[in-house]
Design goal:
The protein has seven helices and 23 strands. It is mainly beta. The chain has two domains: about 180 residues, Lipid/polyisoprenoid-binding, YceI-like (Lipocalin); about 140 residues, Protein of unknown function (DUF3299) (OB fold (Dihydrolipoamide Acetyltransferase, E2P)), CATH 2.40.50. A hairpin with a 5-residue loop joins strand 22 and strand 23.
Length: about 350
């Protein structure tokens, strides 16, 4: 009898797993901030400052916001502009942008009911839970009255943009003291951060590359990185069970999988993994130098793991753009020591310094 119960239990679990796997994944639309019309404004009682240089992405299913919405925005603090000086005197804020060049806002969940969906031109207002990483400190924040409006492609409101559009407006408060930001005279009241963003559905905005350099397809990072991938818990990447649970394969768009196995040329910056007398065999190709110089964690699809075959080593090139040529693999990538290397691996043919 016990064996029968155990068999039925195992059978039930297997059937449940099979059914779960057969369910199609939520179809996510991924939006990225448009090049213009976006701003993050920092404001206190005695100063105003703003940055308009914003990267990031928003992922959602328009019909299932309650369980799919997530967003991440990277703010270029080196481009922060002081908008006004209050006439009671100059308020000095030490941003330390050379040391902490980025701030990162991650919106993790919305406080909406299950049946709320996006409708053309109809604003939705809700609260949201988020984290704000700023000045080397990461803390939870509450977004009050986050408002977003969805405009499908060819809507009369946004005909000048290439795809579906999401308008996102919100704000939150922080204490500079919590983030170790120095102010003179000292600010004791909360600082308000407000943002206003236009984001475009990248499925429409970014097309499959067609340009070639000889036999190699030129693939820009704007194509490799312009879709949503869940950020891993980096502290758990030594846990084999956690690693086995990662499923980035399902999140890679079909148009990106089309270049799996292609001979490609990709331009970026080298981050050596192993250096021996100025030469390397393995390195990461990064979208920018922010990760190399300032320790800003790149998104998983903003790096390529490059390996030169047969122990052949090449000269390390630092702080200068290079173009790598070779065969690209598109899939979840791990080193033999189970270190996550992203979703792209390139078997190197040659390297050239980019112009």
């Amino acid at each position: 009898m016990k064996k029968l119960v155990l068999f039925l239990l195992i059978l039930g679990v297997s059937v449940a797993c099979a059914l779960a796997q057969s369910q199609p994944p939520e179809e996510l639309k991924t939006f990225t901030p448009d090049k213009e019309g976006n701003i993050f404004m920092f404001g206190g009682s005695q100063f105003r400052a703003a940055t308009e240089r914003i990267n990031g992405s928003i992922a959602l299913n328009p019909d299932a916001l309650h369980k799919t919405f997530k967003a991440m925005f990277q703010l270029d603090m080196k481009r922060l502009k002081i908008e006004t000086v209050i006439d009671r005197g100059i308020q000095k804020v030490v941003w330390n942008a050379a040391v902490y060049p980025q701030a990162i806002l991650r919106i993790e969940s919305l406080d909406v009911v299950e049946d709320v969906g996006l409708v053309d031109g109809l604003p939705i207002t809700t609260d949201a839970k988020a984290t704000f990483e700023f000045h080397g400190v990461k803390k939870s924040v509450e977004l009050k009255d986050l408002r977003f409006t969805y405009f499908p492609k060819n809507s009369r409101f946004v005909q000048w943009l290439p795809g579906d559009v999401l308008r996102l407006v919100g704000g939150f408060e922080i204490e500079f003291e919590d983030y170790n930001v120095e102010t003179k005279p000292e600010l004791t009241s909360p600082i308000s951060i407000h943002f206003s963003l236009f984001a475009v559905d990248i499925a429409e905005a970014v097309s499959v590359p067609a340009e070639r350099i000889g036999d190699y397809l030129r693939v820009p990072f704007s194509f490799l990185g312009d879709y949503w991938l869940d950020e891993p818990d980096w502290q758990k990447l030594t846990n084999p069970q956690y690693i086995a649970s990662l499923s980035y394969e399902k999140q890679i768009p079909d148009k990106v999988k089309q270049i799996d196995g292609e001979k490609v040329a990709i331009t970026g910056f080298m981050l050596p993994i192993d250096v021996d007398k100025g030469k390397v065999r393995r390195f990461l190709l990064m979208k920018s130098t922010m990760s190399c110089c300032f320790g800003v964690a790149p998104r998983i699809n903003e790096l390529v793991y490059v390996e030169s075959p047969k122990e052949r080593k090449i000269q390390a090139v630092m702080d200068m753009p290079i173009t790598v040529f070779g065969k690209l693999s598109v899939s979840q990538q791990f080193r033999e020591d189970l270190m996550l290397m992203g979703v792209y691996q390139l078997e190197l043919d040659k390297v050239k310094r980019a112009r």
